[in-house]
Sequence to fold (171 residues):
Amino acid sequence: MTTTTALPAVRFHGSVEKPLRLTVAELRALPADRVEVSFDCLAEGEQRHGYEGPRLWDAVRAARPRIDLRGRKQRLRFLLTVTGADGHCAVLSWAEIDPDFGGQRILLATSVDGAPLDVAGPQLVVPTDRCGGRYVGGVTDVWVGPVAPGLPAPETADVCEITDLPSQLPR
Fold:
């Protein structure tokens, strides 16, 4: 008996016209960028790595987000949540990836230090972050949607949940 293991895929959903799933191989077919980064990992100290893969901007645009790109201000209402297989989640603003605003080189990396991530799944790479908290490994979901007063909240299964805030937060 032959067992086949499905390769990890990223689900792009939310306010998109074309919800889709892309494997690492399919992400690799998008225009690639390469970044050399250094960040502080709480558990392992300073990390230095080279990542390659498509910009998050290009990958999200493949799902055709329901955002009017002709205007500017309305784009600022949109967020992206990126979730990994382990449940780790990072939130980004649309302005961080949009070339008309921050235009950051945020990647869905398909390789790290030359090693392919086909089995582990892509990794979110935020090169401007000094700590590695928003580096999400084994990305499984990218949700795109508006967040503004008066708009319905997205389903809790589609976004990150804040569950364990320290009691020492300033009030």
About this structure: Confidence is low (pLDDT under 50) at residues 156-171. Helices lie at 24-28, 56-62, 94-97.
